[in-house]
Write a structure and sequence with these properties.
The chain is mainly alpha-helical. The protein has one domain. Helix content is 82%, strand content 0%.
Protein backbone atom coordinates (compact mmCIF):
# COMPACT_ATOMS: atom_id res chain seq x y z
CA UNK A 1 0.00 0.00 0.00
CA UNK A 2 2.89 2.36 0.78
CA UNK A 3 4.32 1.92 -2.72
CA UNK A 4 0.98 2.76 -4.31
CA UNK A 5 -0.31 5.77 -2.33
CA UNK A 6 2.46 6.52 0.13
CA UNK A 7 2.54 6.46 3.90
CA UNK A 8 -0.12 9.16 4.32
CA UNK A 9 -2.94 6.64 3.74
CA UNK A 10 -3.23 3.93 6.37
CA UNK A 11 -6.41 1.85 5.83
CA UNK A 12 -7.35 -0.76 8.37
CA UNK A 13 -7.03 -4.45 7.57
CA UNK A 14 -10.82 -4.79 7.92
CA UNK A 15 -11.32 -2.15 5.23
CA UNK A 16 -8.80 -3.77 2.85
CA UNK A 17 -10.29 -7.23 3.29
CA UNK A 18 -13.75 -5.77 2.76
CA UNK A 19 -12.68 -4.23 -0.54
CA UNK A 20 -11.15 -7.54 -1.61
CA UNK A 21 -14.34 -9.44 -0.82
CA UNK A 22 -16.41 -6.75 -2.56
CA UNK A 23 -14.37 -7.04 -5.77
CA UNK A 24 -14.87 -10.82 -5.79
CA UNK A 25 -18.64 -10.42 -5.31
CA UNK A 26 -18.79 -7.73 -7.98
CA UNK A 27 -16.85 -9.87 -10.47
CA UNK A 28 -19.21 -12.81 -9.91
CA UNK A 29 -22.29 -10.61 -10.27
CA UNK A 30 -20.96 -8.91 -13.40
CA UNK A 31 -20.24 -12.26 -15.01
CA UNK A 32 -23.79 -13.47 -14.45
CA UNK A 33 -25.20 -10.11 -15.57
CA UNK A 34 -23.29 -10.23 -18.86
CA UNK A 35 -24.71 -13.69 -19.51
CA UNK A 36 -28.22 -12.44 -18.82
CA UNK A 37 -27.67 -9.30 -20.90
CA UNK A 38 -26.69 -11.52 -23.81
CA UNK A 39 -30.03 -13.29 -23.44
CA UNK A 40 -31.89 -9.96 -23.19
CA UNK A 41 -32.98 -10.70 -19.62
CA UNK A 42 -32.87 -7.15 -18.30
CA UNK A 43 -36.14 -6.66 -16.38
CA UNK A 44 -35.19 -9.10 -13.64
CA UNK A 45 -31.85 -7.37 -13.20
CA UNK A 46 -33.54 -3.98 -12.92
CA UNK A 47 -35.81 -5.28 -10.16
CA UNK A 48 -32.78 -6.58 -8.27
CA UNK A 49 -30.99 -3.24 -8.71
CA UNK A 50 -34.02 -1.42 -7.26
CA UNK A 51 -34.11 -3.80 -4.31
CA UNK A 52 -30.38 -3.28 -3.81
CA UNK A 53 -30.85 0.48 -3.69
CA UNK A 54 -33.63 0.28 -1.11
CA UNK A 55 -31.68 -2.12 1.12
CA UNK A 56 -28.09 -0.91 0.74
CA UNK A 57 -28.42 2.82 1.45
CA UNK A 58 -30.00 2.44 4.93
CA UNK A 59 -27.69 -0.49 5.70
CA UNK A 60 -24.62 1.57 4.79
CA UNK A 61 -25.76 4.47 6.98
CA UNK A 62 -26.42 2.15 9.92
CA UNK A 63 -23.13 0.30 9.58
CA UNK A 64 -21.18 3.54 9.09
CA UNK A 65 -22.41 4.75 12.46
CA UNK A 66 -21.76 1.40 14.12
CA UNK A 67 -18.42 0.31 12.55
CA UNK A 68 -17.01 3.39 10.82
CA UNK A 69 -15.67 3.35 7.28
CA UNK A 70 -15.18 -0.46 7.08
CA UNK A 71 -18.88 -0.80 7.87
CA UNK A 72 -19.77 0.87 4.57
CA UNK A 73 -17.89 -1.64 2.43
CA UNK A 74 -19.16 -4.58 4.47
CA UNK A 75 -22.72 -3.26 4.13
CA UNK A 76 -22.12 -3.16 0.38
CA UNK A 77 -20.94 -6.77 0.38
CA UNK A 78 -23.84 -7.94 2.54
CA UNK A 79 -26.58 -6.07 0.70
CA UNK A 80 -25.22 -7.03 -2.74
CA UNK A 81 -24.97 -10.67 -1.73
CA UNK A 82 -28.50 -10.76 -0.31
CA UNK A 83 -30.23 -8.65 -2.97
CA UNK A 84 -28.34 -9.60 -6.13
CA UNK A 85 -26.03 -12.62 -5.94
CA UNK A 86 -28.29 -15.03 -4.06
CA UNK A 87 -31.39 -14.25 -6.18
CA UNK A 88 -29.36 -14.46 -9.40
CA UNK A 89 -27.90 -17.82 -8.43
CA UNK A 90 -31.29 -19.11 -7.28
CA UNK A 91 -33.21 -18.01 -10.39
CA UNK A 92 -30.45 -18.48 -12.98
CA UNK A 93 -31.34 -22.10 -13.82
CA UNK A 94 -35.00 -21.15 -14.29
CA UNK A 95 -34.09 -18.18 -16.48
CA UNK A 96 -31.61 -20.15 -18.58
CA UNK A 97 -34.04 -23.02 -19.13
CA UNK A 98 -36.26 -20.61 -21.11
CA UNK A 99 -33.43 -19.78 -23.50
CA UNK A 100 -32.04 -22.72 -25.43
CA UNK A 101 -29.50 -20.51 -27.24
CA UNK A 102 -27.66 -19.45 -24.08
Amino acid sequence: MDLWVGATVDPSLTLLIGFGVWKICEACGNTISMLLNGGNVVGFQLKLAGLLLVVSVPMKLLMLGEFGLPGVIWATVLSYSLCVLIPLLFFLPKILSKYKNI
